[in-house]
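Pinned message: reference record for DsrE-like protein
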Amino acid sequence: MNHLYILNDGPYGSERTYNGLRLAGAVSKMEGNAVRVFLIGDAASAAHRNQKVPSGFYNVETMLGNVIRHGGEVGICGTCMDARGMSESDIADGARRSTLAELSEWTVWADKVLVF
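Predicted structure (tokens):
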């Protein structure tokens, strides 16, 4: 089954992005499932590389890497990146700049779309 996770909230402050990535990571490990994550709005900053968080605190960059290591794809809204001053060199390994047009294609591709 094809799963699309659309994340809207910033990586820290609320737990919506955290919980979306927890679920995406778990589903990506299950046989027969394809996972794509699209970061839009404040969630674009979840893909910022070299995040340093307090000891014992979750790290969304690491969580995105978990999805990618299990075959998932991560797209980041390019307009949202620009609005937050993010360049392609700021993006975590395996994630990539994307577009609303690609999000539209991913939405049609997906059997399930979950929005956090």
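Pinned by admin. Summary line: The chain has one domain: 2-115.
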